[in-house]
Each structure stands twice: as C-alpha cells, then as structure tokens.
C-alpha cells in the first residue's frame, strides 16, 4: 500500500480512492494515456507522453530539447503524472448525473533525468515490449546518436493514488420516473487492422494477429503439392502475376484486378474480414517451386456449431487440374475435422460455375440445394448459389479417396 499524503487525499468522493500498489501497477501497465504536469518559470505545463513502469519506477519518454527534460537537470523536476483508462460513459436521466467509468493513477514526486546508458536502454526496451511482446528483438536497437537525442525521466513511485468509478447510473430518486434512456456505454481500446508501411515484405508479427479462437488462427499448412501460409499484403505482386487472367475471376464476386493495386484491394478486403473474425485467409504456394499460385479461405466460421465453409478460392490457370487445389482442400478439411473438431464443412459456388461444382463433388461433398438470388455479381446481376457440404461421418471415406488421388498425381515443377 502507498501511504496517503496531503496531495493524494481527496476532499470528496473518497470512496473512489485506493492506495493499493497492485491496482496502481495494473493501470500503469495497461494504459497508454499519460499526462506529465510540471511548472516552468512559474507557469503550469502539461504534456502528453509515453510511459512504462519498471518495478517501482515510472519512466517517461521525451526529447533532450523539451522543457521538462531541460528543467530536470541538476536536482530534478517536481512533477505530477496522471495516467487514465476510460472504461465507459454513464448516461443518466438528468444531465447532472452523467459520468464516466474509469481507472486512473496520479503520482507525485521529483523526477530525475536518466543519464546512465544501460538504464536508458532498459527503459526503451521495456517501452517497445509494452506495445508488442517480442518487438525489441524484432527491430533495430537505438544507435548512440539516437540514444543521445532521447531523454528519459525516472519518477520513483512513492506518492501514488488510484481513483476509479465502476458500476451503473447513480440517480436522484425523484428522477427515476423520467422517460429518458439511462445506462452505461462500455468503452475499450480496440486495435484496428494493421496497415503495413510501403515496401514491407515481412509477415505480420504474432502480437498483431487477432485470433479470437483456434478456428480463427491462420496456421501454416504443408503438403507435397502446396503450402498454405497466412495471406499478407507482401504477397500482392506475386499473387497478381499468378492470377492475371480474367478466366480465373470469372465466377467470383469481385471484378478481375487489372493492376497490382487491385489485387492489394482484394487482399485488404480479406484481411479486413479476417480482422473482424469473419474469415481466415491463406495464400497458396507451389510446394515444389515456392511460387505464389492463388488464395483460399475459411469463412462462415462458427465454433459453437462446429461448422465452417471453404471458399474465396482463386488459383492461377497454369495450376488448374494439378494436385494443388485438391491437396489444399485436403489440408483445409483435415484442419477443420481433425484439428478443430468440425462436424460440417460447406462450400458455395455460382450456379453457372460448372467446373467448380464438379471439383467440389470430386472432393466427396454432397449437393444440398440452391440459394436463389444469394449474392450479387460484379456486373450487378444476382447469382443463384449452389450449396455443398461434407459432414464428419463422410470425412474418413473422402479423405481416403483424396489421398489416393494425390498419390497418383506428380507435383508440378
């Protein structure tokens, strides 16, 4: 426990206060919203900054030319630091009782300028690790010049308080009859879809992937004919070159890309759906040459009902009627039935796409019916969709037939 002081003892709402060390550390470790308060020449200043906690010290990031860092030279700088996590907005029937649910830490003390290079490096490493576990070993460390241009303040955590609000609306009894909506809107910091910088070819780091369940995890799958790996923007140029044929896109629900930028949009759509938990997208590589040859996905992912669909598949024409598509489906079926415990795998295809229907039937799937006016084609017309499915009890025989077919197929060189 942190001992209360005159500066950390409130004059009102004392029930919201805490001096629990573990609670303070939890807020400091979770939050990114940090404000550094100090005075310069008798004038108040507040600066937003980055922070990280190491043990009982709060470190604050800055530039060697900034006011607080210059003022901290010598005997240190008296500061007040506020770190906040906003958890929700509280809507009351009366305007007066509107509020917010939050957790915040306020720390007072004298911050010192970190001059020891090892301590500064440890802080910067911890800060990078805070935004992504393992990131410090997957990036270039700072150079001596960069270290010299970076200033770090260290604030011992001694005079610390935690203030929070949780729960619902607190309303005057006289207002409870008012015909206005009241309640809580929960808030949380939610990451969006990662947007790689131009020219990035490295795969997306594991800490940036959003796998809600094992069903949403785009694990790599390997066979003799094909390798399936998580789809990335880095595959754009190869994927565009392999599938630059209108016939490849003829029955898909997107127009054929005419340039790599169009293929990047297709990839972006897949990754956005994957980020929302609606899809798992793979790129297909020839296992012999390593060339990117197409893409395929899981969609309609339903772990509760143990069901998934395979689709959004497009494959370069050069690799049609080879073992690549067959083995890709075998790998995806094995992943679904054997690894994830699926009881049903489905396919959907345009009623005009006879070649696709024949291929799905060769897998051992059963035609279940036609979904009329199910999806819209790129030209605006409505397509009827043929639905197929394979169930768990059908999988063993289908697996044996597919393995026998692949045994007689020579991998494409």
UniProtKB/TrEMBL annotation:
For molecular function, the Gene Ontology terms on record are: acyltransferase activity, transferring groups other than amino-acyl groups
Gene3D superfamilies linked: 3.40.630.30, Electron Transport, Fmn-binding Protein, Chain A
Q: Where is the signal peptide?
A: none
Q: Name one Pfam family in it.
A: Acetyltransf_3
Q: Which residues form the N-acetyltransferase domain?
A: 226-365
Q: What is this protein called?
A: Nitroimidazol reductase NimA, pyridoxamine 5'-phosphate oxidase superfamily
Q: Which organism is it from?
A: Micromonospora chokoriensis
């Amino acid at each position: 426990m942190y001992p209360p002081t005159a500066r950390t003892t409130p004059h009102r709402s004392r029930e919201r206060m805490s001096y629990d060390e573990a609670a303070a550390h939890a807020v400091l470790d979770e939050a990114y919203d940090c404000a550094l308060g100090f005075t310069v020449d008798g004038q108040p200043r507040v600066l937003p900054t980055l922070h990280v906690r190491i043990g009982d010290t709060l470190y604050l990031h800055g530039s060697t030319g900034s006011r607080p860092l210059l003022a901290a030279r010598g005997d240190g700088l008296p500061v007040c630091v506020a770190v906040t996590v906003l958890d929700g907005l509280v809507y009351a029937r009366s305007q007066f009782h509107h509020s917010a649910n939050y957790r915040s830490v306020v720390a007072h003390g004298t911050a010192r300028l970190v001059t020891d290079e090892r301590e500064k490096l440890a802080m910067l490493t911890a800060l990078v690790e805070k935004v992504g576990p393992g990131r410090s070993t997957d990036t270039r460390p700072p150079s001596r010049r960069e270290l010299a241009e970076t200033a770090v303040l260290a604030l011992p955590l001694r005079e610390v308080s935690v203030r929070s609000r949780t729960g619902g609306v607190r309303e005057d009894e006289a207002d409870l009859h008012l015909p206005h909506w009241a309640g809580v809107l929960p808030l949380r910091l939610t990451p969006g879809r990662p947007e790689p910088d131009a020219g990035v070819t490295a795969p997306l780091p594991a800490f940036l992937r959003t796998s809600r369940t094992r069903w949403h995890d785009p694990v790599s799958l390997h066979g003799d004919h094909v390798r399936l790996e998580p789809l990335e923007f880095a595959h754009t140029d190869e994927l565009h070159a392999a599938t630059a044929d209108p016939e490849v896109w003829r029955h898909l629900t997107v127009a054929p890309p005419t340039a790599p930028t169009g293929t990047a949009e297709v990839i972006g759509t897949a990754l956005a759906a994957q980020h929302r938990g609606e899809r798992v997208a793979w790129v297909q590589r020839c296992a012999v040459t390593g060339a990117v040859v197409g893409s395929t996905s899981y969609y309609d992912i339903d772990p509760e009902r143990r069901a998934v669909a395979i689709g959004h598949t497009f494959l370069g024409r050069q690799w049609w009627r080879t073992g690549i598509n067959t083995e890709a489906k075998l790998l995806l079926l094995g992943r679904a039935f054997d690894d994830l415990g699926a009881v049903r795998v489905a396919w959907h295809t345009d009623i005009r796409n006879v070649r696709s229907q024949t291929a799905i039937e060769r897998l051992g799937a059963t035609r279940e019916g036609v979904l009329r006016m199910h999806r819209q084609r790129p030209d605006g017309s409505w397509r009827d969709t043929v639905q197929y499915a394979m169930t768990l009890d059908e999988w063993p025989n289908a697996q044996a037939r597919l393995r026998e077919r692949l045994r007689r197929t020579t991998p494409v060189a």
